[in-house]
Amino acid sequence: MNMVVDIAIHVVYNKINKNLRILNNGLWVTKKDKTYWLRKIATINLKKIGGGSAAQDKIIHDYAKKDRVFIKQQIELYKPDIIIYCGRGKGKNADILHDVIFSAEDMSEWKKPVLQYNYFYIKMKEKGEVPVVSFYHPQMIGSHSLFAKRYEEMKVLENNLCCKEQ
Hints:
It contains 6 helices and 6 strands, in the order E-H-H-E-H-H-E-H-E-E-E-H. By secondary structure, the chain is of the alpha/beta class. It starts with a strand and ends in a 6-residue tail after the last helix.
């Protein structure tokens, strides 16, 4: 599975490790496994310059609009099976991808949520339709039980949105 995950450069990959369990049949990943899976995940930022620890939606939107051709090309180069856009809520990253980066003929409308997760499909030249899911940021703060819940939700998303290894 190839995933494009919109996350900050400074992300602590050990938190992503918790989310990688879904890719490793629910088992905690070893350092070797983590290296394997992290090579299958591409990270991008919609805002291509540095910033602070908190993002400002309008600034991200403006940079994404300015760089939309580059961002679309970057996503197409990765040939993802699924795109997980981190940061949930109106005007956040998945909305920017839907409203700014891809044109209407290149994507579907928002679909009925799976669990509480909104998603839509984009059309890619070599991959066909690829689901784009608005999900929580991997740096979210939470307990083990919260991460376990997110893991179970990721399994449901995988089963419902055709994110199988090709």
